[in-house]
Specification:
The chain has nine helices and eleven strands. With about 300 residues, it is α/β, with parallel strands linked by helices. It has a six-stranded antiparallel β-barrel with strand order 6-7-10-9-8-11. A five-stranded parallel sheet has the order 3-2-1-4-5, with helices on both faces.
Length: about 300
């Protein structure tokens, strides 16, 4: 069994704080000739502990991809269930860190707790003879970066703040499915995304976004919420790929949200709606022309 340097945590969003953990772990792994292994949990522990539905910043699959992108050699996804909830910290250390992963070092965020009633701390891991590094929180605008804070920024439509804390724009990925097909009759055909029910959705409104289909990147104006003009009640995420006429039903599309443009509104007929959509597209073009596309160096 290969020795490992373990990064421990849920790591939803893989934000700048999580990326720092991975960077520290990579340095330790190089020195110890070990692999960086992330131990994450699904479902989110709060969903089990508090019996609530936790809205995820990114899907489990996207979380894995990001963790590998930022330096993990492997991601171990552990089911968080009632047994895990009641597991003593010493048993978790023995079962997972020592027996399963042969951990020579563990990296956690400042104040990280684990095990039954959150009794376990970094000191408990160190006491088991495993080198333990507790990494200080990363800061943003007089406060620490956290998944909770990023979720709130996204719910508020504060996409620039979310991007600064994530180190990249907030992104939704889903399959393009058949919608009402009303957009094409208005001159603005849209791609209707099918999303995971646990996926966090931004504040209802219209956004400027980059849309990726395959290896191609497009500018987009995105509507989030119900279509109020036509009496819609079902929240949707629909993207108009600016100046494009593509048949992409059944394909995966990723939307990287750059700026909130306006709230959802009910217009007095299709003509007023089209006039507003004309303005939305012009504004989206202006915003996106001055924005870095996904994957660009934001530093």
């Amino acid at each position: 069994m290969n020795n490992s340097v373990v990064v421990l945590g849920v790591l939803d969003g893989v934000h700048l704080g999580h990326q720092k953990l991975l960077s520290v772990a990579a340095d330790l792994a190089t020195d110890a000739n070990a692999k960086v292994v992330v131990v994450s949990f699904d479902p989110h522990p709060n969903a089990v502990l508090q019996n609530i539905e936790v809205e995820l910043i990114c899907s489990i699959e996207k979380r894995k991809q990001l963790l590998l992108h930022y330096g993990a050699d492997r991601v171990e996804l552990i089911e968080f269930n009632l047994r895990r909830m009641h597991q003593l910290p010493s048993d978790f250390i023995s079962e997972i860190l020592i027996d399963k992963l042969a951990a020579v070092a563990v990296v956690v965020g400042e104040g990280y707790r684990f095990g039954y009633k959150a009794q376990g701390t970094a000191a408990d891991i160190a006491a088991a003879g495993i080198k333990t590094v507790e990494v200080a929180h990363q800061e943003f605008v007089n406060g620490r970066i956290s998944s909770t804070r990023i979720r709130q920024a996204i719910k508020n439509g504060e996409m620039a703040d979310a991007a600064m804390m994530l180190g990249r724009p907030f992104t939704l990925t889903g399959e393009v499915v058949l919608g009402d097909q009303r957009g094409r009759t208005l001159g603005y055909p849209t791609a209707n995304l099918q999303l995971d029910s646990a996926q966090l959705i931004p504040k209802p409104g219209v956004y400027a976004a980059f849309a990726q289909v395959g290896n191609q990147l497009y500018w987009a104006a995105v509507s989030v919420g119900a279509n109020l003009t036509f009496g819609g009640i079902e929240p949707r995420v629909e993207a108009y790929l600016i100046d494009q006429k593509l048949e992409i039903y059944g394909e995966q599309i990723s939307l990287s949200f750059i700026e909130y443009l306006r709230p959802m509104q009910a217009f007095d007929g299709a003509e007023r709606l089209i006039a507003q959509m004309d303005q939305d597209v012009l504004k989206a073009k202006e915003v996106l022309a001055g924005s870095l596309p996904p994957g660009s160096n934001r530093n």
